[in-house]
Amino acid sequence: MTLLDLLPSIGHAAPRRFDPAIWPTTASSDEDGRLCIGGMPLADIADEFGTPAYLIDETDFRHRARRYHTALRDVEIVYAGKSLLTTAVARWAREEGLGIGVCSPGELAVALAGGLDPSRIVMHGDTTSPDELRDAVAVGVGRLVLDSSLDIAYLAGLARRRQRVLIRVTPDTDIHGHRAVTGISDQTGGFTLTGGHAAEAVRAVLAHPILDLVGLHCQIGSQVCDPARYGEAIRRLIAAMADIRAHHGVILTELNIGGGHAVPFLSGDAELDLDVLAGVIEDALDEACAAEHFPRPAVVVEPGRGISARAGVTLYRVCSVKTRPNGHTVVAVDGGIGDNPRVALDGAQYTVALANRHARTQRRAVTVAGRHGEAGNEIARDVELPADIHAGDLLAVAGTGSYHHSMASNYTMVGRPPLVAISGGRARELVRRETIADLLVRDCG
Ligand SMILES: Cc1ncc(COP(=O)(O)O)c(C=O)c1O
């Protein structure tokens, strides 16, 4: 037991047990050592809703959205719904003045059900079918981002009124040392600026007067912590816009530089500094627009993780604790790859904490393993947990607000966890737990 655990009253003088860079801004511990979010002990939430459970702190989500507005004053903020979207989350985004980026009919329907004005929706066309494009146009989405020649042709054929579109390009900014590769030529969607592909797409769009080409879009990667890379993307996209003006006499007015802003998952991880990003955007715009004598376009950013990651925590119950012959301890919990696919997908690392009591012993490094009995079915490796951890304890995993609920599966026929929102001193389900009946209802026999 630490001194802080014994004497919580000295908490104000000691480092916080839950690093505010990693955990929701409202995270604290009560006199029993229980992790609380928004003043609510997570142990009580586990009792009410069961485990595993995704928790989302509405206060933290709104705080991050406001932080974007404060830092990036003249920039339009479009929340990337693919990171986490429910009707309530869409409503929070709307109330905080964010647009929403969607990339499927399901996300579109949820954003609309959350009360978002369709004109504030940016729909991404990655591999959209003609029917999906038709539906998006029919509800009046504000902007469609096109990244294939087929989409351009489909859209031109089905639009009945002028539709604002952007073309997604890959600016090839250097991302050495970054795991995720979105934004590199030949790796993902988007037209390359080199080789004339983007220019061809521009020609194709401009050939259809029903399509109103308003700008260019790019997504340069994920977990990007160097703001200079956004500056480089802006310079390249402004140069491309100047080329479009030279060849077609058209002045594009919107520059969407996507999301990908790095957030920390472990104490000490780098984070994209939004204040620095604001300066970089300004400088790059000033410089590039002056060099090309090009009028300043409106800038749009599309953060997902930057808004939703740290608002989320996943709560697990410890099922067993085993010590391997090599002395290493494995703590098995009641969730796993089905609710947290990111560890297996890209080696993501997470911060884990005991959530239901004080630590009564020293800490030691353990592996937190999931229930699915697979190689690689780990939630976290070499995390420090109290040596007396035992079945029935509760573990909280930080930074799981993004790409967990939205990427969950019912692998091994385990129902997906509920998503529980905490706000105003109360917890309520935004999405209920998936039951066996839910699983059977889709099975046609
Ligand atoms: C087009 C686009 N916009 C925004 C995002 C959000 O990225 P992040 O959650 O890393 O901010 C993504 C993520 O893949 C994306 O593809």
Automatic annotation (TrEMBL):
- Give the enzyme's EC designation: 4.1.1.20
Q: Has keyword Amino-acid biosynthesis? A: yes
What reaction(s) does this enzyme catalyze?
meso-2,6-diaminopimelate + H(+) = L-lysine + CO2
For this UniProt record, the keywords arranged alphabetically read as follows: Amino-acid biosynthesis, Decarboxylase, Lyase, Lysine biosynthesis, Pyridoxal phosphate
Domain (Orn/DAP/Arg decarboxylase 2 N-terminal) ranges: 60-309
Q: What's the top EC group for this one? A: lyase
The organism's superkingdom is given as Bacteria
Q: Does the keyword Magnesium apply?
A: no
Identify the PROSITE patterns for this entry.
ODR_DC_2_1
Q: In which pathway does it act?
A: Amino-acid biosynthesis; L-lysine biosynthesis via DAP pathway; L-lysine from DL-2,6-diaminopimelate: step 1/1
InterPro entries per the UniProt record, alphabetical = Ala_racemase/Decarboxylase_C (IPR009006), DAP_deCOOHase_LysA (IPR002986), De-COase2_N (IPR022644), De-COase2_pyr-phos_BS (IPR022653), Orn/DAP/Arg_de-COase (IPR000183), PLP-binding_barrel (IPR029066)
What GO molecular function annotation could you give as one example from this UniProt entry? diaminopimelate decarboxylase activity
What's a BP term from Gene Ontology annotated to this protein? Answer: lysine biosynthetic process via diaminopimelate
Q: Which cofactor does it need?
A: pyridoxal 5'-phosphate
Descriptive protein name: Diaminopimelate decarboxylase
Native organism: Mycobacterium ostraviense
**Top-down, what is the taxonomic lineage of the species of origin?**
Bacteria, Bacillati, Actinomycetota, Actinomycetes, Mycobacteriales
